[in-house]
From TrEMBL:
Protein name as it appears in the record: 3-dehydroquinate synthase
Name of the encoding gene: aroB
This enzyme's EC code(s): 4.2.3.4
Protein species of origin: Winogradskyella endarachnes
Function, in words: Catalyzes the conversion of 3-deoxy-D-arabino-heptulosonate 7-phosphate (DAHP) to dehydroquinate (DHQ).
Enzyme kind, highest EC tier: lyase
């Protein structure tokens, strides 16, 4: 597969990942290489990764963090910063983030702030991170249960997508990443959406191409609007309500936490309904979206009491301006509209629709 050039970096695929990574190390000669993993990627991905890396005389230090969204926090960042300092990391050190979206988001933020910024490289190991989290330079951590409240936009030196790491994933994690791919179709490319929702006509060998296509879509959006002043906002479709739902299920002891993609799937269903009310999304397309998402994702019960707390959490969404919650909605599949204002009454109606 050809590499994909982003604004300041390049995304490489499969065997090219290690060729280009080793070339980068040989050319830049970092003072020390740090590899950030979580407990899962330490066991299942790190051995294979280290076999491929040619560091010469440069020391490699491995830092392990606990896995899970609940660990995407400033406290974990502090631990990583302190570990790097103890191992004498300097401004010429390189941080490689080997993991899913939690590792690439947090690791990118750690690198962007340690000594005011050192070089970093993302090696995503989950489908979600391959098609979304690791590409585009968004880094950051959660503030309590509030998603991505602290962070910076800063691209790494490169992204390396080795799809063989997907063999280590549980089916649930694969499904979670698939939500972001569906989103790319809904906001950008109806033909891509149609392909994803008819996977029975494909086989596993098509997955690499679908991942590649998703990265191309995200890169087109991000390259045209790196700092999210306009078009890049469309990537938040399903995320306004989805992030609030994810936060609520994460912090509520009576709920089973949802994976990111599971929450975003609910958000896309809700926001598609809102689209029919505000942007004129045809009802036949709403039906197509519902059927396409529910082929893969199971509905999750959300009570009236749940809804009230979730709606309150919307005030923390990063797209808000002057206290007004702003949504990305759809005029049609492949035709998004940004900065839509939605009343709480309509949101409650969307939840009623979802429950029915």
């Amino acid at each position: 597969m050809d590499s994909i050039s982003t604004k300041n970096a390049v995304v490489y695929f499969n065997s090219e990942v290690y060729i280009e990574l080793n070339k980068y190390i040989e050319t830049t000669q970092p003072s020390k290489i740090f590899v950030l993993v979580d407990t899962n990627t330490h066991d299942y991905c790190l051995p294979k990764f280290l076999e491929q890396v040619e560091s010469g005389d440069i020391d490699i230090e491995v830092m392990e963090m606990p896995n899970g969204e609940e660990n995407k926090s400033i406290d974990i960042c502090t631990g990583v910063w302190e570990a790097m300092s103890e191992y004498n990391a300097d401004r010429k050190s390189l941080l490689i983030n080997l993991g899913g979206g939690v590792v690439t988001d947090l690791g990118g933020f750690v690198a962007s702030t340690y000594m005011r910024g050192i070089a970093y490289i993302n090696i995503p190991t989950t489908l979600l991170a391959m098609v979304d989290a690791s590409v585009g330079g968004k880094t950051g951590v959660d503030l309590g249960a509030l998603k991505n409240q602290v962070g910076v936009i800063n691209e790494g030196e490169m992204v390396g997508v080795d799809t063989s790491f997907l063999d280590t994933l549980a089916p649930k994690e694969m499904v979670s990443g698939f939500a972001e791919m569906l989103k790319h179709g809904l906001i950008f490319d109806k033909d891509y959406w149609n392909t994803l929702t008819h996977l029975e006509a494909l086989d596993i060998s098509d997955l690499d191409q679908l991942i590649y296509d998703s990265v191309v879509i995200k890169n087109k959006v991000v390259t045209s609007d790196p700092t999210e002043q306009g078009l890049r906002k469309i990537l938040n479709f399903g995320h306004t309500l989805g992030h609030a739902i994810e936060s609520y299920f994460l912090e509520n002891a009576d709920k089973t936490p949802l994976l990111h993609g599971e929450a975003i799937a609910i958000g896309m269903l809700l926001e598609s309904y809102l689209s029919t009310k505000i942007c004129g999304l045809p009802k036949e397309e709403l039906k197509i979206i519902n059927e396409g998402i529910l082929k893969t994702f199971t509905k999750v019960p959300i009570t009236k009491n749940d809804q009230k707390v979730i709606i309150d959490l919307l005030q923390y969404d990063k797209k808000n301006s002057h206290g007004i919650v702003k949504f990305v909605l759809l005029e049609a599949i492949g035709q998004p509209k940004i900065d839509c204002i939605v009343s709480n009454e309509l949101i409650e109606e969307a939840f009623d629709y979802y429950e029915s």
